[in-house]
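TL;DR need structure tokens for one chain.
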Amino acid sequence: MASLSPQTLLSLSKPNKPNSKQLPSHASLLSKLSQNPNFSINKQRKLNSWVVNSVGNEELDVLPVQSQDLTDMQEGVVVGREEDGELASQVSQVSGFSDGTLSFDGFSSASSASADERRGNEEMERLIDRTINATIVLAVGTFAITKLLTIDQDYWHGWTIYEIVRYAPLHNWTAYEEVLKTNPVLAKMVISGVVYSLGDWIAQCFEGKPLFEFDRTRMFRSGLVGFTLHGSLSHYYYQFCEELFPFQDWWVVPAKVAFDQTAWAAAWNSIYYTVLGLLRLESPFSIFSELKATFWPMLTAGWKLWPFAHLVTYGLVPVEQRLLWVDCVELIWVTILSTYSNEKSEARIAEAPAEAKPCLLDISPPKE
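>> reply
TL;DR here they are.
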């Protein structure tokens, strides 16, 4: 699109003087500018807009223009050309311009279709996850209930349903005691693994997730820590605690509770957070930062629950059955541990982009 140069505009804006030189014709200027290869269409458009605004605002004298192009001669302002019509129609087809206005109908429909497709994919993924989680829960629950109810299947001949339900708890307890005698460490590992998995599932439900939309990986990590570490370490810890306090005096139980809630609680909380961080593939610095931030709050939070529970643990429950009682209370405690650990991890992940953003801004080249 042809237009006037700034030099021409300055010459046009000056008042007419008797001795001033004759200005060059508009047609000759247009032809020279159009022949210049460096004078692009965008520059022509910007210059034309600048000329129009300057003429309209300053109310300067405007020379009439005579040209073969289709122009609007009112107030001496060029407003259109045949070539502009063709170019405008092309821009309208490409960029959404129509009749001088910008239209986003094409873009909005495309973005709406993309958003609908994305929502559909997310709904499908959520449905698949719910199906898998529900299958896992139903399979594990069915297996556990079947094993508990069929403990006496060899003696069912002539039994009623009432007799089966009545004797199942007693005979399951007898079977558990037999396993504690033959393989105590493995039995306690299995119990701790189940309890830590259930505790993490309960924690996710308390966080607002639907029942069957839990994070399987997170629950597996917690259960793995309970199975591999808590069950075996607790077995040897309770034996060590009995050897450390081999007395029967009244002060032994408070002493065991105090030792449990200082040395053992500090050691186990550190192990739990460290191993969870390793399973999440976090850096040692992140693990140490989380441990440093959670050590004292979690230790003091345990003092609100465990001293009362351990009065029963060390005062009434035999050594071999202590872990089972502790794991029942652990359902509450693991819920607190898992929730606190994952909140810290998610907060640290959310802060990482915010910390990286200023760095990106600092290294970006300056704008010209």
